[in-house]
Design the sequence.
């Protein structure tokens, strides 16, 4: 994907999950702060819940904890 063609408002469904795809517990704080400068907490949660990207359950749980929302998982065990 050519990131230069992405639009912050039109492509948030792509940008949000991809920004957190490679995050780890060690880099989560920095990564989520970058997203928060662009998108609301509600949007971040919404697009993480809807994505087909392989976002780890650990990342989903970190996001849920940060925003005090009910924990959610991308993959059931």
Sequence:
């Amino acid at each position: 994907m050519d990131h230069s063609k992405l639009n912050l408002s039109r492509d948030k469904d792509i940008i949000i999950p991809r920004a957190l795809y490679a995050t780890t517990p060690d880099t989560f704080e920095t990564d989520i702060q970058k997203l928060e400068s662009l998108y609301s907490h509600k949007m971040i949660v919404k697009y993480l819940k809807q994505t087909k990207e392989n976002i780890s359950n650990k990342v989903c749980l970190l996001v849920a904890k940060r925003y005090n929302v009910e924990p959610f998982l991308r993959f059931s065990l």
About this structure: The two ends are 30 Å apart (CA to CA).
